[in-house]
Recover the amino acids of this structure.
């Protein structure tokens, strides 16, 4: 950015920055928690979770002393639970050895990628490194009319942002670019008339704001079919703890299996040990590039190998969001 643009951007940020709880009384721990929660999740969604988390765990040491189930329970509903497990592990390592203070060493911690490491290092430790997410990419791709996409766009944005970053305020600079992308330079209809960069913005100058950034090719979505059974016996529901997978490991679920090509639903249910089931409903959801159709059934039998819980007990266990939907479908069939 030209230095006049850079100065106007920081002035705009000083006047317009949202009053977010992690910007009040910032410290390295709160910055870390907020940046991990903000991975893959919008600010509005994060707000109540951040407050709850900080109330329960006011310090890194408090997280380190807690058990994983409790950390996961506070995360319940935020999604991408691997983040919670990694944060827990990071806090344990940092409680023992101290939190690293540079972006390169932060990036070696579990669950801390390039972006989060740079965000924490610039905001909490004033290290002059650029951090670039989708919002920042959009601003810079438009400002410079960058014809790139994917990782080459990311690298070019990091390079250009670092070139104009004011050395005294790296964290504010990064957050100003994020904030501009989130509130002014929005994907569909950017508010260029109130944008502090408009005078020198390339895409605005040529009336091509929505032609940048260039789209990248996405993999085709894949269809998946799952069959899930809610076992009901003696007023209790049968669940199991998920033991593998990247997303949902150690959360709880009803027995569930993939429906193989050309397989009948009854046969998939038999594989789960379930017979004479009653249909509960169908739920569609997306996980990464999978479009999942989940067929849910109720089975009034004592299926083997499960943990049997009342509806109340289940409410406090962490479950993947689609499993909560299945639980709600089943609620109508349960004794009250
Ligand atoms: N998204 C990721 N980090 C953020 C931050 N510090 N402020 C606002 N949005 C963000
Ligand atoms: Fe984005 Fe418009 Fe500002 Fe350019 S002038 S950075 S397109 S909001």
């Amino acid at each position: 950015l030209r230095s006049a643009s850079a100065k106007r951007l920081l002035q705009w940020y000083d006047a317009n920055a949202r009053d977010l709880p992690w910007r009040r009384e910032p410290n390295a721990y709160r910055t870390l928690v907020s940046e991990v929660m903000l991975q893959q999740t919008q600010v509005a969604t994060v707000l109540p979770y951040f407050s709850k988390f900080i109330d329960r765990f006011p310090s890194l040491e408090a997280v380190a002393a807690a058990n994983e189930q409790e950390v996961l329970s506070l995360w319940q509903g935020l999604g991408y639970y691997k983040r919670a497990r990694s944060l827990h592990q990071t806090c344990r390592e940092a409680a023992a050895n101290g939190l690293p203070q540079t972006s390169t060493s932060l990036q070696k911690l579990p669950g801390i990628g390039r972006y989060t490491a740079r965000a924490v290092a610039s905001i909490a430790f004033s290290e002059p490194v650029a951090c670039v997410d989708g919002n920042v990419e959009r601003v810079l791709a438009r400002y410079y009319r960058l014809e790139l996409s994917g990782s080459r766009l990311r690298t070019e944005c990091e390079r250009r942002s670092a070139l104009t970053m004011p050395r005294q305020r790296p964290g504010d600079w990064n957050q100003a670019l994020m904030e501009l992308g989130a509130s002014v330079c929005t994907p569909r209809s950017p508010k260029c008339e109130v944008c502090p960069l408009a005078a020198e913005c390339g895409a605005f100058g040529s009336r091509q704001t929505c032609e940048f950034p260039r789209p990248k090719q996405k993999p085709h979505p894949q269809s998946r079919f799952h069959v899930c059974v809610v076992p009901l016996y003696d007023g209790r529901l049968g669940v199991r703890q998920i033991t593998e997978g990247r997303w949902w490991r150690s959360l709880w679920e009803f027995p569930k299996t993939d429906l193989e090509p050309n397989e009948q639903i009854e046969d998939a249910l038999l594989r789960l040990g379930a017979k004479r089931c009653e249909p509960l409903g169908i739920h569609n959801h997306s996980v990464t590039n999978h479009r999942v159709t989940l067929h849910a059934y109720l089975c009034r039998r004592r299926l083997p190998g499960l943990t049997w819980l009342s509806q109340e007990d289940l409410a406090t266990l962490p479950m993947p969001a689609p499993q909560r939907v299945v639980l709600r479908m089943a609620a109508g069939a349960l004794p009250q």
